[in-house]
Fold:
Amino acid sequence: MIRLMKADIYRLLRTKGFYITMILMVAYAVLIVSSQSVGSVGVNMSDTLDASTIQWNLKMAVQYTSFSSAFLVYFLIGLFVILFGYEFSQRTYKNSLTAGVSRRTFVLSKYLIQLLFFLLATLLYFGGAVVTAYFKYGLGDTDLAPFLWNTLVLSIGVSLVISVIFSLASFVLVSSNSLVLASIFVVVYPMAIQIIAMMINADGLKYFDFFGLVQQIGLGTLSGKELLPYTIISLITIALSLAGSALVIRQKEL
Structure:
């Protein structure tokens, strides 16, 4: 697994798309803070937050940046393509499997390396927001050490939620052998959840609204008890997606 992850890191760091994505992440955060504008995606947040009516400061800037972090999924499609999509579109994944790597190890390594770079991208995103907000609003009454720790925890939480969406996209990719379908899935998923929610009015769908979950984490509207079912369903979704991907690969001819 370590060998596979090292190979992915080497390939990604030699790709211009990686650096472009990282720059876009920082630029997006800077744009949000400098323009004091945010938006929402998903079932849980039906209305766009009117942040212009709120007095912005360092803490609020990071909070509203987190609220907009659901849109990061669209920026990260590029990393998904480089890390996972390329091998399936070119069918070079067979090289790893014929070299003795198990299907489960292969799929797990792909998920972990995606999670690692999603975390890096998310840290850069929030880092850009913190630096921009600091120069624009100053520290104010913010206790810097706890604030940075909470921002780090927030970054980890957001990257984990984003990884759930891409674990599902990975399953779509493995099942269809279509990078286009997997990318479309990422784009269509939040809209599909909204449409289904409106049609059947099922409250349980909110637990599968991973875009909305990112926004609620940012606003801090979920208590620990309320967050538990979201966490359980997210972990189950990741586990089932990875197991399903490994099973589908096992059925494919090498």
